[in-house]
Design brief:
By secondary structure, the chain is an alpha+beta fold. It has 2 domains: 91 residues, DNA polymerase, domain 1, CATH 1.10.150; 140 residues, Cytidine Deaminase, domain 2 (3-Layer(aba) Sandwich). The protein is built from 10 helices and 5 strands; from the N terminus they run αααααααββαβαββα. A 5-stranded mixed sheet has the order 2-1-3-4-5, sandwiched between helices. It is elongated, with a radius of gyration of 21 Å. The N terminus is likely disordered.
């Protein structure tokens, strides 16, 4: 197949099936537009993904300087990729500022991955919502080391009370690929759920976001989605002991 046909293939699929039907590699290929001598654009796009171990989030944080280190990527292509990722982040932020709903664990996870300071350390966020289920504020509660972050319930609810939030979602990140909750995560969720019931703030969910998810693994854990938010009776038992 001639080189130009390979380079045009992702664009043809975009026109025929829409952007959601394309893989990450194909979308990157469209941004690159062309490959290099002896290297089709799809192959070059795959090498770019491989440079970030297939993790699109890590790739989005790669500097222009580091992108230029990839064989076949010049400054123009590197700048184009970096600009595209920056626009995606800004678009997400604008949608949230306009009151777009964060109405599922999926949207929570996507939002936090774009907002997180670093994928290499745990962060804890509290998302505050009004009575119309719109995001009021995202409060960064704590930033920890690779395997530990401390979130005192006082810090979690301080801004919620100040902003008169009707509901909150507690979110924290795992630097690894595994979002499975630890015993401490479960205990904290019980505590937060119980306190929220006392001060009449809806505790919607605790979402754990894996910052380096593997394609075959879940990229987040939702206590709500896993049926673990009906915790009031367990919380009361915990406070009795």
């Amino acid at each position: 197949m001639p080189q130009k046909h390979i380079d045009e293939l992702p664009r043809e699929r975009l026109l025929n099936k829409g952007s959601d039907a394309l893989t990450d590699k194909e979308l990157i290929a469209i941004l690159l537009r062309t490959g290099t001598q002896g290297k089709p654009v799809l192959e070059l796009a795959q090498e770019i993904l491989d440079s970030a171990n297939g993790n699109l989030l890590d790739l989005s944080r790669t500097s222009v300087k580091d992108l230029c280190k990839i064989s076949g990527i010049g400054e123009a292509k590197a700048v184009g990729l970096a600009a595209s990722f920056a626009l995606a982040r800004r678009l997400l932020q604008l949608k949230l500022e306009e009151g777009e709903l964060i109405d599922s664990p999926d949207t929570v996870a996507d939002y936090i991955r774009n907002k997180a300071i670093s994928p290499d350390q745990e962060e804890a966020h509290v998302l505050l919502f009004d009575t119309r289920e719109r995001l009021i504020k995202d409060t960064l509660v704590s930033v920890g080391t690779l395997n530990k972050t401390i979130s005192h319930p006082r810090e979690v609810f301080r801004e919620a009370i100040r902003e008169s939030a009707a509901a909150i979602i507690f979110v924290h990140t795992h630097p690894s690929f595994d979002p499975t909750p630890s015993d401490d995560d479960i205990k904290l969720t019980i505590t937060l759920s119980y306190i929220a019931s006392i001060i009449d703030i809806e505790f919607r969910d605790h979402v754990i976001v894996a910052m380096r998810p593997k394609p075959e693994s879940p990229h987040y854990f939702s206590f709500l989605k896993n049926g673990l938010l009906d915790l009031e009776k367990f919380a009361k038992e915990s406070f009795k002991n």
